[in-house]
């Protein structure tokens, strides 16, 4: 067996070991640090841990909802910036997981190519949006007319450039891992960019298509927690032991009722 074949077998064995590892072999996750503001800790020091958690969640929920309403008041543009910021943060979190695996093999360009593909995909999606919704504005600008006319060709050329860079970064004995991480990047793009693009498309169709789904998610999260806190007895799933069937069912029916009320109310306003 020559050196190349031996290295290939070595890599396959290491990957097989990772696949066969049981849950007991996975290192324990370090306990989360308590980031509660000190002023809240002092104010709630006399309460039990259960009620202390209730008040902390309640206060922080009201604070986040207030900030969200402020952003809504500032208009659609600020909401688009918020969605894009969340998209970039989620993408960064998922790509960082892959980078830790990739970096352990000293393989090049993974993080750089991941961010490059994010720029390419955003350029394609939001270029399409500009062409669809700002056609009148674009027609008055000669420079933009060229970009819009050849938008899909430019997008394809940018992606092809990234693919060529990926091919150039391939390292012998690690092809499988590199293609695995290449797929990881594309699935991450599908999860993050596609969703954020569709949310922004909803904003262009009217604020109601943004507010009703988002407020329904907020309602479900809050009511599921309230029902679970007061009535929860039956565990829902092992993955999250604090989730209960009572919270799940209460949140479901509360969200359905909330959706009917809010959608009818907003439709009358519009």
State the main characteristics.
79% helix; single chain; 270 residues; mainly alpha
Topology:
Layout lengths: L2 H18 L17 H6 L5 H26 L1 H28 L6 H24 L1 H5 L2 H8 L1 H18 L6 H31 L2 H24 L13 H25 L1
Helix pairs in contact: 4-9, 5-8, 5-9, 10-11
Description:
- This protein is mainly alpha-helical and 270 residues long.
- It has eleven helices and no strands.
Instruction: Give the N-terminus to C-terminus distance in angstroms.
Output: 74 Å
User: What string, H for helix and E for strand, traces the elements in order?
Assistant: HHHHHHHHHHH
How much is the radius of gyration in Å?
Answer: 24 Å
Number of helices, counting only DSSP H or I runs of 4 residues or more: 11
What is the percent of helical residues? over 70%
Tell me, rounded to a whole number, the average pLDDT.
82
Shape: globular
In summary, what is this structure?
Helices cover 79% and strands 0% of the residues. It is mainly α and 270 residues long.
């Amino acid at each position: 067996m020559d050196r190349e074949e031996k290295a290939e077998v070595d890599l396959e064995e290491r990957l097989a070991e990772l696949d066969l590892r049981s849950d007991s072999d996975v290192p324990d996750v370090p306990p989360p640090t308590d980031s509660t503001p000190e002023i809240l800790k002092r104010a709630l020091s006399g309460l039990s841990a259960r009620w202390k958690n209730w008040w902390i969640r309640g206060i922080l929920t009201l604070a986040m909802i207030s900030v969200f309403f402020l952003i809504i008041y500032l208009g659609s543009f600020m909401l688009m910036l918020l969605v894009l910021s969340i998209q970039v943060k989620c993408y960064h979190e998922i790509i960082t997981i892959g980078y830790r695996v990739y970096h352990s093999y000293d393989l090049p360009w993974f993080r750089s190519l991941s961010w490059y593909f994010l720029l390419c995909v955003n350029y394609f999606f939001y270029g399409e949006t500009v062409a669809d919704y700002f056609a009148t504005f674009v027609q008055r600008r000669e420079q933009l007319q060229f970009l819009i006319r050849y938008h899909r060709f430019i997008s394809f050329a940018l992606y092809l450039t990234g693919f060529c860079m990926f091919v150039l970064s391939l390292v012998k004995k690690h092809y499988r891992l590199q293609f695995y991480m290449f797929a990881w990047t594309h699935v991450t793009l599908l999860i993050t960019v596609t969703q954020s693009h569709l949310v922004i498309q909803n904003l262009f169709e009217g604020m109601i298509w943004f507010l009703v789904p988002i407020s329904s998610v907020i309602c479900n999260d809050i009511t599921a927690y309230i029902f679970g806190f007061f009535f929860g007895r039956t565990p829902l799933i092992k993955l999250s032991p604090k989730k209960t069937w009572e919270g799940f069912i209460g949140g479901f029916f509360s969200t359905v009722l909330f959706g009917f009320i809010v959608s009818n109310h907003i439709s009358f306003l519009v």
